[in-house]
Amino acid sequence: MIPASLFAGAAVEGRVELPKSHAAPVQAKRYEIVTKAGVLSTQPPLAVIYLDGNFSRPAWLPMKEVAQKDLTFIPALLPIQVGTRVQFPNLDDTYHNIFSYSPTKRFDLGRYRPEERPIPSVIFDNPGLVTLRCDIHEHMRGLILVLNTPYFVMTDTAGRFRLDKLPPGHYTLKAWIDSRTTRQKPVELRDGQTLHVDLP
Amino acid sequence: MKARAKTRNEEVRSFRTRLFTAIMVIVATLTALGFYLAQRRITADAERNLQERFKTELSSMHKLEELRHATLADRCNALAAKPRIHAAIEDDAIDLLYPSAQDELRDLMEGDEPPPEQAARFLHARFYRFLDSTGVVIKPPNASDVGGLDAKTEAQLSLNTLPNTQQIGYVQSGGDIHEVIAVPIFSTDTGDLVSALVIGFKPFELEDKHTGMQSGIWVGGNLHLPALPPPARSSLNEKIKSAANDSESDQNYFRVEVDGAPQFLFYKRLNPASLFPPAYEICVHPIAPWIAQLHRLRWQIGGAGALLLLGGFVASHFVALRMSAPLKKMALDSEENRAERERAEAALASTAEELERSTRYSADASHQLKSPVTVLRIGLESLLEREGFKPEIYEQLSGLLHQTHRLTGVIDDLLLLSRMDAGHLQIASTPVNLSQLVEEWLDDLGALPDSPDVKIEKEFPGGLLVAGEKRYTSLIVQNLLENARKYNRADGRIRVSARGNRSNVMLTVGNTGLTIPRGENIFERFHHSSTPSAASGHGIGLNLARELARLHGGDLRLVLSENDWTEFEVRFSAANGVNAVA
Question: Is B132 on the interface with A (CB under 8 A)?
Answer without folding.
Answer: no
